[in-house]
């Protein structure tokens, strides 16, 4: 794969905006800061990939054209990418493909979502219920939490995972987020707090669920020869995407996220590294159990539950996971989520991440994101600059 | 700024119309592929072999709950209808019951699949315990 670098990046705080700012403002801030981080000018960007899940949130169709105009980008290649929860990550991979194909030299990938403050929670929930098979699951009024809960139930029945395991993940990610100045839910909560929070969809409670967030994130992608910093930034070494059956009931094992493993194999193959080389991961934890299901599907350890219970995935563990706080702690403005995951992993590898960091930056990091319920899965492998 | 949208969609059901028409009557119409795989709910392509040819068959409408989740307002389950090779998400019409078998009923408030649970567990018919 062509040598591609994450030349720079930035994000706004992820939260529920109450300051009167608009998603156009957030995009502008993330883009300008990302350019500054990459030591580039607006005129250096020759392609813009916008990640946005739903026009129902922004009430702006064709948002890529609108954002390009707002950023002062004209006469360049502009496109929009959408893939449910994986939207931002898919946009990063689409931007990388433009560079790899020689269609652009410096691509800005800009993800945003206004999923917290523009609509009431019930309306957002109703829209998200259309993320599955809108003609079957969506028709009965089921929401994301209940669908994830059913998958979690299946995984628990197969593996022996408990609500305590889920609560540990939920509390840890919120604690990790306390070091992240952009995080939506940097909460000082314990496992007991999680298990005492209000029931949402058994086995999930309120603190097992990621929040609806507003925000934007941006990364700049380019080959080293097109960058002032040359090869001094993290490399996007491998990319994979794979899909699964949309309906849980059509899957052989509704608790298993098999498509992640397929995507991972492709990404590892491109990166030319082994899974055992991965020393840090940002994993899609829309719900606490989903983090464990993801780690299980990715095969990052032989026994995920034993590893989880032994502290393997903590900042001090052998494979730190979601030091940013993940979706549970950092938040989840959907289009920006995957972009921010990639940004966090890149900055960790460069040893300049602002939040919680491992004692020694690893050489390889993994980023995992999905749409639906692991229906559309994106995995990337990043490598530290050398 | 304040904006309000009211959107009234008309969604043609296409090739799956017989299934949805039957659901509205509380009947379970499945698709049996030429390979023998029975899909309920049906899809446009067989999940087992990829074929698109087959025929509609009517199932008895009884199902076994494999996994269940309860929310403060309602309950849903992943259930497998007798005679089907796939499972399906259903809304439980009788959330106060915790038995594992039920039967399809016509939808009430929303559309979709609704399952009314049996009041007592039939140990001879329940082959899988609900967790």
TrEMBL record, chain A:
Residues 248-383 form the Thiolase C-terminal domain. Transmembrane segments: none annotated. GO terms for molecular function: acetyl-CoA C-acyltransferase activity. Signal peptide: none annotated. InterPro entries: Thiolase, Thiolase-like, Thiolase_C_2, Thiolase_N. It holds the Pfam family Thiolase_C_1. It comes from the Bacteria. Residues 6-181 form the Thiolase N-terminal domain. This is Acetyl-CoA C-acetyltransferase.
Automatic annotation (TrEMBL), chain B:
Gene3D superfamilies: 6.10.30.10. InterPro entries: NA-bd_OB-fold. This is Uncharacterized OB-fold protein, contains Zn-ribbon domain. It comes from Marinovum algicola.
């Amino acid at each position: 794969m062509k040598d591609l670098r994450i030349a720079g990046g930035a994000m706004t705080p992820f939260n529920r905006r109450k300051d009167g700012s608009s998603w156009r403002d957030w995009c502008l801030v993330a883009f300008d800061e990302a350019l500054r981080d990459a030591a580039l000018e607006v005129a250096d960007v020759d392609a813009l990939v916008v990640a946005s899940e739903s026009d129902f949130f922004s009430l702006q169709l064709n948002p890529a054209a609108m954002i390009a105009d707002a950023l002062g980008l004209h006469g360049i290649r502009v496109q929009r990418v959408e893939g449910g929860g994986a939207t931002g990550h898919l946009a990063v991979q689409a931007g990388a493909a433009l560079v790899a194909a020689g269609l652009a030299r410096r691509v800005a990938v800009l993800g945003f979502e206004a999923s917290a403050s523009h609509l009431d929670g019930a309306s957002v929930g109703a829209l998200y219920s259309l993320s599955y098979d809108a003609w079957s699951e969506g028709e009965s009024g089921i929401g994301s939490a209940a669908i994830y809960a059913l998958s979690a139930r299946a995984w628990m029945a197969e593996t022996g995972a408990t609500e305590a395991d889920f609560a540990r993940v939920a509390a840890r990610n919120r604690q990790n987020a306390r070091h992240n100045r952009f995080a939506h839910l940097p909460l000082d909560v314990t496992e007991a707090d999680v298990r005492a929070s209000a029931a949402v969809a058994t086995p999930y409670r309120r603190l097992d669920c990621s929040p609806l967030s507003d925000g934007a994130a941006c990364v700049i992608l380019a080959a080293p020869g097109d960058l002032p910093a040359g090869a001094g930034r993290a490399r996007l070494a491998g990319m994979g995407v794979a899909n699964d059956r949309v309906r849980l009931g059509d899957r052989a094992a509704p608790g298993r996220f098999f498509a992640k493993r397929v995507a991972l194999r492709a990404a590892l193959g491109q990166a030319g590294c082994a899974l055992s080389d991965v020393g840090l991961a940002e994993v899609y934890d829309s719900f606490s159990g989903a983090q464990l299901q993801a780690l299980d599907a990715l095969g990052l350890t032989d026994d995920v539950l034993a590893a989880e219970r032994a502290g393997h995935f903590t900042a001090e563990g052998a494979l730190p996971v979601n030091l940013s706080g993940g979706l549970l702690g950092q938040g989840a403005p959907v289009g920006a989520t995957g972009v921010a995951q990639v940004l966090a992993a890149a900055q960790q590898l460069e040893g300049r991440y602002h939040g919680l960091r491992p004692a020694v930056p690893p050489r390889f990091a993994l980023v995992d994101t999905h749409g639906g319920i692991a229906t559309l899965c994106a995995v990337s492998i990043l490598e530290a600059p050398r | 700024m304040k904006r309000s949208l009211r959107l009234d969609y008309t969604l043609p059901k296409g090739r799956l119309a017989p299934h949805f028409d039957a659901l509205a009557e509380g009947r379970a119409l499945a698709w049996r592929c030429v390979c023998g795989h029975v899909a309920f709910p049906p899809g446009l392509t067989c999940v087992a072999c990829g074929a698109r040819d087959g025929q509609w068959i009517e199932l008895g409408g009884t199902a076994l709950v494999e996994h269940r989740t309860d929310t403060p307002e309602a309950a849903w389950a992943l259930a497998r209808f007798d005679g089907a090779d796939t499972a399906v998400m259903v809304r439980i019409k009788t959330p106060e019951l915790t038995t594992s078998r039920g039967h399809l009923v016509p939808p009430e408030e929303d559309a979709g699949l609704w399952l009314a649970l049996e009041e007592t567990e039939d140990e001879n018919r329940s082959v899988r315990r609900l967790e």
